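Sequence in, structure out.
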Amino acid sequence: MSRWTDLWQAHVPRAAVVVHDLAVVWLVWHGLHWLRYAVESDVPPHSLWSPEVLIVLGLQGLAFWWVGLYRGLWRFASVPDLWNILKASLAGLLGILLGLFLYNRLELVPRAVLVLYPIVLAALLGAPRLVYRAWKDAQSDERRKTSTRVLILGAGQAGEALVRDLRRFGTYQPVGFLDDAPRLRGSKMHGVPVLGRIQDLPEIARETAAQLVVIAIPSADATALQRVVGICERSGLPFRMVPRLQDVLEGRSLPGELKEVAIEDLLGRKPVLPDWKAIRAWLGGRSVLVTGAGGSIGSELCRQCARHGARRIALVELDELALMTTEAALRRDFPDLDFVPVLGDCGDAAVIGHALALAQPDAVFHAAAYKQVPVLEAQLREAVRNNVLATHCVARACRDADVGTFVLISTDKAVDPVNVLGATKRMAEMVCQSLADRGTRFVTVRFGNVLDSAGSVVPLFREQIRAGGPVTVTHPDVTRFFMTIPEACQLILQASAIGTHEAVYTLDMGEPVPIRVLAEQMIHLAGKQPGRDVAIVYTGLRPGEKLHETLFHSDERYRATQHPKILQAEPRKVAGAEVDAAINALRDACARYDLAALSSLLREAVPEFEPIGAHGNATSTATVVAFPARQARRI
């Protein structure tokens, strides 16, 4: 019964539209003939149904089908639909001329009928559609009397599309636009007036009794968006924004969805535009393996590889819940790909050997690592075991298996290490350099903090704000480099695709962000005021932390790559024999859980490692340079 009901609902309304349109054709054809001979006494015979009429109906119906007139809905009839009707009328006229010429040489068909036919037909077909839409819109207007009153910031294409979407849903009532373009002042769009400038929002919001503000400026950079958000906060109204096209294309937002302004929207980073052609050419049809596949970076790397052509992805993960969750999400979103889950420690030679045998990867992304600076200061043995020895285990296994590319996910803290995390990741880089003596291409990619990753300050701040505060910041002047998880993974793939043998790449992290400012912005986005509603407390730098991070060491000469957000550093020289000896000594100290030996061995193996004081006073004498300015890269 349900099947017949579905067929009825699907086909009967469309069939009724077809019958309506053909009835209008019949009416126009006979009506024009009647008008042509209305003032003449000698009227030639004209049958209501004749082969000539059937030819007209058949050819005009084919023209309707050819133009695609029945793919649209009357409820949303607009100018494009009227244009299609006019095209169908003209195409039908041409067909009728040809058909009747072949049938009876256009005998007894007045020229006036042929001239007026497409004009009258287009008018009589378009009028019912527009009347129907006006009637439906009037019904929506009645519902909108109880709907939310919305002010839209931005009267461009995004604002125009937003008005149509809001009216379609019926739960929102657009009451006006605000836009800084003087030429738009006083104009209307879909009947909605442009009431003033964006900075006038607080006053206009009171005058219009608005209940919600929507930012429809998806092209605005972070500076402009910060200004707009500040104005929205002064209005006291809740606000949302139209998602950027890139977020929609990558599945992070839905078309027509209103999203909350996220902290990454305000951090001053321009969208990354990777060379997708190069990435797909390198990745397409390949098998890849990702360690730490259940983590923030690892899971997104799996998703990016699946999206851009990998045929098989092996997921190596120690956390069973993270492995299960990541695998389920990937199988749901990419059902045609081959996924190979491997539960285990990638530092176990048997586990990584088993994973390599199952996946036979062309590329391995080593994302598994411990990354929490204060934790690792007190967990030296586990930091060395997981960040150094596990990296050596995976990298050596990949070299012995002749894997095409091995990509180490490193950190900016390895540039001039002053904490255990930086020293162990620097040692991991040295391990990869020492093994780069055969066919496997070893690539190292460094970047800083990742927004919203597990253990980062963003989810911590968000939870503290939700609890009413206080928000804990280590130091008023502390800064960090940030990028989003998808952006970091896109640049990792880009660096991997263009990477040369034994290459070290640093991602352009943008400008360093003061953590105090980050906390204040997140409090504002939650609709609260720093200091008044949520306190900010400075707790002091934790063990291993320093005020500012750096991306390049002075001993690593850098040069531009084909991608503007990726620079290549010339690796510092390492002696393979010394690295091997250090690995053996570290492995022996780990087996004995000898923390004193581990500390001494790590400092010997990484000469630039100078542990920082508990209060942030670095004793390192190395000269460190920040990411070079854009002008310097063109020299």
